[in-house]
Design brief:
The complex is a heterodimer of chains A (about 450) and B (about 500). With about 450 residues, chain A is mainly alpha-helical. Chain A has a single domain, classed as Up-down Bundle (Formate dehydrogenase/DMSO reductase fold), CATH 1.20.1630.10. Chain A is about 65% helix and about 0% strand. Chain B has about 500 residues and is α+β, with helices and mostly antiparallel strands. In chain B, about 45% of the residues lie in helices and about 5% in strands. Chain B has 16 helices and ten strands. In chain B, a hairpin with a 5-residue loop joins strand 9 and strand 10. At the A-B interface, helix 1, helix 6, helix 7, helix 8 and helix 16 of A face helix 1, strand 2, helix 2, helix 3 and helix 4 of B.
């Protein structure tokens, strides 16, 4: 095991996951210190206030929408799926990194996940909340949204289980529930740590309540670890299924540009891509703000950049393969849809997507770029922008040139569309800032578990 | 602590995992059953050192996962195929592939909830009170210290021996832990708040109960006005919108009733007194713009079959002939509308053809307004005029060979509309190789289709009918052919044999 943290020696030994002179207690101090500090850093207040203000805007927009009708948005025939669905797919895509990091990397025994998994699971849950909001409000009459669930009712009607939109309801709600369980289960031992250090009565009560009386019993740990492994094994196909099902909303329709079999893997790769970008966007400022540089190390950042580069090339491959198939299929409509995508009225959206998603991650071939935090931060924002535009391009360019040229229509968002999207960021960051302040941002027990001191050194082994 | 009576057990503190591991092995080997290790993270191998039996949790999850799978399947089957069958384009009401996504999700949902809740139930959690929490030292069990607790309920338990065992195994401090005398209750603040919440929650059911069975003259309360109450004007009603205060308005000037549609008979039917009109109705003024309009309409509606030049080779015809040549379709070719046979028809007859259709051509009255149908006829006359201008003069015709004259006649007399020359059966038999072939008649007799039979069939198509053919299918439009014309045609057919 390398004892030095010097970058030059990385080629021989992997960097330690916890850097600096740390023992178990100092790790506890570092993570709990964030929520035990009497006041959060000033930057926390700035971000939180802005986020709450935007959340207020979101609330106002939703009230306006519900009291007035979906006509307040730019959606109209033939672009009946405008920004709400773009935003839905954008947020649900971001919500994929958390479970991927927690579950898939766990199954692959990637120990470096421990530094960032709590973080990204929280991000997942908040992103899925933002995502789930959009289909719910875009139905227009939100008070009958319960029709999407199989609830016995006086109309003696049931949902159509063969509709991809219904699959979506099940996929996203299952994903949200399982992610929440997974996240909360990981939190329990750490909440117990916070409880045992709590000084005030209120903290003792609330952390005590949610830590369920956890006492670190090894008999408990035994079942806990087994349950965690089972959840990871269940969440792995689940995370792949969710964005596949989201892609079915498009792929099972007959529309040129949507009706392709490449969509499920392409969507999943894009989701992982955007999710990792959002983890970077959040973790680079957060590790600095809360002094967690020794737990979220450059090695973590480096690894995430590699994932971004790999998935970025996957989506790049998907973009080119879509064009190839449009030509190779000999289908004139498919061909038109794709030429229109790149050179039609929304050409700018397409090329923003290509430059942000395909070109910009290529810089991560260089290790210096992967370890240059300002650069990584900027690139992660580029990827976020590019992935939003990817969904915009898919939804709007296919719809705005439908089969009836007389109804061709240039879609433009309204101010309500714009403020609703901004408001969804308010919701996301409000929840995320509360999480940063009141819950352990790093899985304390899991980080301790990957420290060298955590393993019994037995001579006879 | 002195007031506490019942001993819970002894708890020993360790500072590193290796010593803990060794101590756990010793306690296990000493035969203790009711004891536990408490660590801030799961220590690898400690399960073996303690001798913990492997949990049955995975089996529970498997069983509930299968239950989820069957539930997901049955939920969809019963709701969509039995209770409320969804008939979508006549597809089967139960088609498994489309149901797999939801089955998968329900399976995962059941399994994950089971893994989560069964784990807590098996761990006897949540249990917010525990005697070990009474030890201040034990607070570090979730931080950086490791503990072994031996429970007094164990059959082998003896305070002195247990303490000695733990001390001997390298424990730092060994502490006795006692049960609390009486469990402390819930904090009074929380208790008070819970009472308030409970009382508030009684208000809605109390309101429902109070109004149960009572009557009211007020309309129903609509929390969400779901389009069941709309602001609108009623016919025959009053309004402040118009000066006369009446909601019902007069008809717009020029409105006609449905039964008044055919007041301009010849414009709408192409007939006057039951006879086809021979000129355009008086309402129609034939101008250049009108003919242009006709050209545009002709190219939109007629050109697709009849060809934009009217010669019968539109894109549909081309495609249908490709399929007919492959034997994949039967086809009635569209007529060449520039030939003299059509040019000689009256305007009214052409109008009727466009309006009501002819042979396999459907009527276009529903798609094309009457004025536009007349415009099409105007443009059609132009096409026919061009054909006349391009036609050969009698001298030029005479100078041609008989077979070449026959070829022109084959088109002009629309033989080509039913007979192919490449062996493909259209409406009538193909004429290449027809001459001098043996054909079977519907009388059962077999004859040779010689020149006489050919001539007889042209002049009187019903005289001899081939087996399987329809009597009266072949008709001759326009003037009967002369002997010369027939012999020219015969010469042409001969060249195609």
């Amino acid at each position: 095991m390398a004892s030095s943290t010097s970058v030059d020696q990385l080629d021989i030994f992997p960097e330690e996951l916890v850097q600096g002179e740390n023992d178990f207690h100092s790790v506890t101090e570092m993570v709990c210190g964030v929520l035990e500090a009497p006041k959060p850093p000033k930057s926390w207040y700035i971000i939180f206030t802005t986020a709450v203000a935007l959340l207020g805007v979101l609330g106002a927009m939703i009230v306006y929408l519900i009291t007035t009708g979906v006509g307040v948005w730019g959606n109209n025939q033939p672009v009946a799926w405008g920004w709400p669905i773009v935003n839905f797919v954008f947020w649900v895509g971001i919500g994929h990194a958390g479970t991927l990091i927690s579950a898939v990397l766990f199954l692959f025994r990637q120990d470096w996940r421990t530094g960032i998994n709590r973080f990204s699971e929280a991000m997942t849950i908040f992103a899925v909340i933002c995502a789930g909001m959009f289909p719910a409000i875009h139905v227009g009459r939100i008070w009958v949204i319960w029709w999407v669930f199989p609830i016995p009712n006086q109309m003696s009607m049931w949902p159509n289980f063969r509709s991809p939109l219904l699959w979506d309801v099940f996929a996203v709600s299952t994903y949200f529930s399982v992610s929440l369980l997974f996240w909360y289960m990981g939190l329990v031992p750490d909440l117990a740590t916070v409880r045992d250090r709590a000084k005030t009565q209120a903290k003792k009560f609330w952390y005590g309540l949610f830590s369920l009386g956890w006492n670190g019993s090894n008999r408990h740990w035994h079942r806990y670890e087994r349950a965690y492994l089972i959840l990871a094994a269940l969440a792995t196909p689940l995370v792949l299924s969710v964005h596949s099902v989201v892609s079915f909303d498009f792929a099972t329709s007959q529309l040129p540009g949507w009706h392709t079999t490449i969509l499920p893997p392409y969507f999943v790769a894009g989701a992982i891509f955007s999710g990792f970008a959002m983890v970077l966007t959040l973790s680079i400022p957060a590790r600095k703000m809360f002094g967690l540089e020794e737990l979220i190390t450059l090695r973590h950042i480096d690894n995430m950049c590699k994932v971004i580069m790999a998935t970025g090339m996957m989506v790049g491959y998907a973009y080119s393969m879509e064009f190839f198939m449009a030509w190779y299929s000999g289908n004139a409509y498919e061909g038109f849809a794709f030429v229109n995508r790149a050179f039609g009225p929304y050409w700018w959206g397409y090329w923003i997507m290509i430059s942000c998603n395909v070109l910009s991650p290529q810089i991560f071939w260089w290790k210096k770029a992967r370890r240059n935090l300002p650069l990584v931060f900027i690139m992660s924002i580029f990827v976020n922008i590019g992935m939003w535009f990817e969904r915009f391009v898919i939804v709007v360019t296919s719809l705005n040139r439908d089969f009836l040229p007389s109804s061709w229509h240039y879609f433009s968002p309204t101010w309500v569309d714009v403020l609703t999207l901004m408001g969804s960021f308010g919701l996301f960051f409000t929840l995320f800032m509360l999480f940063c302040r009141y819950l352990p941002q790093i899985a304390i027990s899991e980080v301790k578990n990957v420290m060298p001191q955590a393993h019994p050194h037995l001579d006879d082994h | 602590m002195t007031a506490d009576k019942e001993l819970y057990g002894v708890v020993a503190e360790f500072t590193d995992v290796t010593t803990l591991y060794r101590a756990a092995e010793k306690v296990r080997d000493a035969g203790y059953k009711k004891w536990d290790c408490h660590t801030p993270f799961p220590v690898h191998g400690l399960d073996d050192a303690m001798g913990i039996r492997f949990t049955r949790l995975p089996w529970v999850v498997l069983i509930m996962g299968i239950t989820g799978l069957l539930s997901g399947m049955y939920l969809q089957y019963w709701t969509n195929a039995v209770d409320y069958a969804f008939d979508i384009s006549g597809k089967p009401v139960w088609s498994l592939p489309a149901n797999i996504p939801v089955i998968f999700e329900v399976t995962v949902l059941f399994s994950a909830f089971t893994a989560f809740f069964a784990m807590w139930i098996a761990n006897r959690l949540p249990r917010w009170y525990h005697p070990l929490f009474r030890s201040d030292r034990f607070a570090r069990a979730t931080d950086d210290r490791f503990f072994i607790a031996l429970h007094a309920k164990d059959k082998k338990f003896d305070l002195a021996a247990a303490t000695a065992l733990l001390k001997g195994a390298g424990a730092g401090e060994v502490e006795e832990v006692y049960e609390a005398n009486e469990p402390s209750g819930m904090p009074s603040v929380i208790k008070g708040n819970l009472w308030v919440v409970a009382c508030l929650m009684l208000i809605p059911p109390a309101m429902v109960y109070a109004s149960y069975g009572s009557t009211t003259t007020q309309p129903r309360v609509h929390l969400i006005p779901d389009m069941d109450k709309q602001d609108r004007f009623r016919a025959q009603g009053e309004t402040e919108l118009f000066e006369d205060g009446r909601m019902t308005r007069d008809q717009v000037a020029g409105t006609i009733g449905q039964d008044q549609r055919f007041i301009h008979a010849s414009l709408e039917t192409g007939k006057e007194n039951g006879e086809f009109v021979t000129s355009f109705p008086t309402q129609i003024e034939v101008t250049e713009a009108f003919i242009d309009r006709g050209q545009e309409r002709f190219e939109i509606y007629c050109g697709i079959c009849h060809g934009e030049d009217g010669k019968g080779s539109g894109v549909i015809h081309e495609r249908a002939m490709e399929l007919a040549n492959l034997g994949q379709a039967t086809w009635v070719p569209p007529t060449n509308v520039t030939v003299s046979l059509i040019a000689n028809q009256t305007d009214g007859m052409l109008f009727e053809t466009i309006s009501e259709g002819r042979r396999t051509m459907p009527g276009y009255a529903a798609q094309i307004p009457a004025e536009d149908r007349w415009a099409i006829i105007a443009y059609l006359r132009v096409l026919q005029e061009v054909e006349v201008m391009n036609a050969l003069s009698p001298e030029e015709m005479a100078a041609l060979g008989a077979a070449s004259r026959g070829e022109i006649l084959f088109t002009q007399k629309i033989c080509v509309g039913c007979h192919s020359l490449n062996g493909v059966a259209l409406v009538g038999p193909p004429l290449n190789g027809f001459l001098d072939s043996e054909i079977k008649l519907d009388t059962g007799e077999t004859i040779v289709a010689d020149a006489d039979y050919f001539k007889e069939s042209i002049l009187d198509p019903a005289a001899k009918i081939r087996e399987g053919a329809l009597k009266g299918l072949m008709v001759l439009a326009g003037d009967p052919l002369t002997d010369e014309e027939i012999s020219d045609l015969l010469e042409y057919i001969k060249t195609q044999n």
